[in-house]
């Protein structure tokens, strides 16, 4: 059984369906997924809509998760995720993941979970406190939220993923997964689970896109995002009011490029041909940046250029989305098919896991003999 999986290159990625996806998601992961999908280098590509994980900090709002499953799926389809090549599936409809999580919980200590830096910073963000006598303004720490890295390890290992393309913030989850894999294989003396590798975004400017307000991260809660589903007018308004350099007041003042969101976006999105097409007076971004630094290049001009660059990217995505929006029943079938395939895949891993743990009682009748020997005192060894 182990040999059959050997050498297969399997991708698993996922998103929490808590909102529509924005440019930060695009540069950080979606674009990469499409490239990987079209590279033909992988035997299997799975994209998990992690609705159960989303519930760990939205348990009181399942409607939000339910609604956003369709938003996220439409985003996938409109950026070029092809359901023929990539399996899109819904986490909560994969019961094997729940079973695996439960077994993995035994292989992880609460102390280890408390050290997870991503969970720690998310706890702060949400006002959860782990202390027994946290102050009254702090909410207690829900066990489901606290253990979601274990459930993510179940996601990854259930598909026997070898490659997990995610952002840097997911490094602790991958580390935790690898530990669980080693622990499992060692404890149950079988080489069943696969240690995954993380695949980080290549380009530095793509690792984390700042918000339009210049803050470190584009996020829904900060209201500083440009969404893949935003119409042209909305994008224009957002770009024209973007944060630049507060010290660049008059055109002739010298300007800063570092920390200037417009330039960070240009770095992330402007391709080689953008200049010859829309701003031929510069041959490349470096030249434009030099001019800005010296003084004499106005923000409005930079923003208008950025808008053209973004529209070139966003308008085909928008068109595809509009098309899929007319075919929601088809999108539903895509999710159903993908989830069915994923269910088979993950059930298979679960039976291997149960067999390694020797808790596959109704799959392996030899237990009747073992029990007889046990009861009658004739058991060997
Ligand atoms: N934790 C991931 C995020 O917040 C989402 C996720 C859930 C995921 N399960 C996964 C990512 C498995 C990669 C693999 O973005």
Describe the 3D structure.
The chain is mainly alpha-helical and 381 residues long. The chain folds into two domains: 3-208 and 327-370, 3-Layer(aba) Sandwich (Rossmann fold); 232-322, Tyrosyl-Transfer RNA Synthetase (Orthogonal Bundle), CATH 1.10.240. 54% of the residues lie in helices and 7% in strands. It is built from 18 helices and seven strands. It has helices spanning 2-5, 23-39, 51-55, 62-79, 95-104, 110-114, 117-126, 143-146, 148-158, 171-187, 204-207, 232-240, 261-269, 273-278, 285-294, 299-325, 328-357, 366-375, and strands at 10-15, 44-49, 87-90, 128-129, 139-140, 163-165, 197-199. It has a three-stranded parallel beta sheet. Strands 4-5 form a two-stranded parallel ribbon. It has a two-stranded parallel ribbon with strand order 6-7. Helix 5 runs parallel beside helix 17 (328-357), helix 12 packs antiparallel against helix 16 and helix 13 (261-269) packs across helix 16. The chain is elongated. Bound molecules: tryptophan (TRP). Tryptophan binds next to strand 1 and helix 9.
């Amino acid at each position: 059984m182990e040999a059959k999986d050997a050498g297969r290159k399997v991708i698993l990625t996922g998103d929490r369906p808590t909102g529509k996806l924005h440019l930060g998601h695009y540069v950080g992961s979606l674009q990469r997924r499409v490239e990987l999908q079209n590279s033909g280098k992988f035997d299997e590509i799975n994209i998990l809509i992690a609705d159960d994980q989303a519930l760990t900090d939205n348990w009181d709002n399942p409607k939000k998760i339910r609604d956003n499953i369709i938003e996220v799926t439409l985003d996938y389809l409109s950026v070029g995720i092809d359901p023929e090549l990539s399996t899109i599936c819904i986490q909560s409809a994969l019961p094997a993941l729940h079973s695996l999580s439960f077994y993995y919980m035994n292989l992880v200590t609460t102390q280890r979970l408390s050290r997870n830096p991503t969970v720690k910073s998310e706890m702060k963000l949400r006002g959860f406190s782990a202390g027994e006598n946290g102050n009254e303004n702090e909410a207690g720490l829900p066990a489901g939220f606290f253990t979601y890295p274990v459930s993510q390890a179940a996601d990854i290992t259930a598909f026997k993923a070898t490659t997990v393309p995610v952002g840097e913030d997911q490094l602790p989850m991958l580390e935790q997964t690898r530990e669980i894999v080693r622990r499992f294989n060692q404890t149950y003396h079988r080489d069943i689970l696969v240690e995954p590798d993380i695949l980080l975004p290549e380009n530095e400017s793509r690792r984390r896109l700042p918000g339009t307000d210049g803050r470190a991260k584009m996020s829904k809660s900060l209201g500083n995002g440009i969404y893949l589903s935003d119409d042209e007018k909305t994008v224009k308004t957002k770009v024209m009011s973007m944060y630049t350099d507060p010290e660049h007041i008059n055109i002739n003042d010298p300007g800063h490029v570092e920390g200037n969101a417009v330039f960070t976006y240009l770095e992330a999105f402007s391709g080689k041909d953008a200049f010859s097409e829309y701003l031929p007076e510069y041959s490349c971004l470096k030249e434009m940046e030099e001019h800005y630094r010296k003084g004499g290049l106005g923000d409005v001009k930079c923003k208008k250029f950025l808008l053209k660059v973004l529209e070139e990217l966003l308008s085909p995505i928008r068109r595809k989305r509009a098309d899929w929006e007319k075919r929601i029943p088809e999108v539903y079938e895509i999710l159903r098919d993908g989830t069915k395939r994923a269910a088979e895949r993950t059930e298979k891993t679960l039976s291997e896991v149960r067999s390694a743990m020797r808790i596959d009682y109704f799959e392996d009748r030899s237990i009747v003999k073992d029990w007889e020997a046990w009861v009658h005192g004739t058991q060997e060894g």
